Known about the structure:
83 residues
Amino acid sequence: VVAYYALSRFWVPFNRALGWFFIPLGQASLYAFIMHVPMVMLIDLVPAFNEGSWVMNTIAHTLALAVIWLLVTYRVLFRWIPR
């Protein structure tokens, strides 16, 4: 409830600051969900991300989000994967 109120109250600055990132992901949310599965499988293969370090986990999550955002932005496989 607090997050909903804060987002409603401060929508304009939030949208200006982070809308470029979240709006494309939201518009292609099914695509992003489908593409996160192979992304998680690839990240699991990297031994450095399996150590349990919060720094490495943060890096892994940030990289995964960045790659998924780039895939959405450049419309990779949009012809075959539903959005």
